[in-house]
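Archive record:
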Amino acid sequence: MKNLSLQAEDLYNKVEDTKRKAELKKMWETIKYSDPVSKEESIHLINEQIAEAFRNVCCNLELKTPEELSKEVKAVINLVNRRNSACKAKK
């Protein structure tokens, strides 16, 4: 998650449009404050889903409508929240 957090921060810093920046900030902060490490197999699958959803956000970012970006960011946030819940349940 540390690497993904750095990528999300980098993406946030590169974007100039305020609407896109606001959406990316929500995603970055959710990732930044998530449970940093887990070696559980069940968490591994969620990590892969998060990485795929994050790639979707990054792909053609400037061509997306604010609504499209918001939907994709929400998908990442929902997966990260699901991962955090799974991590918490394993502790």
About this structure: The chain has a mean pLDDT of 92. Residues 25 and 37 are 21 Å apart (CA to CA). The chain is about 80% helix and 0% strand.
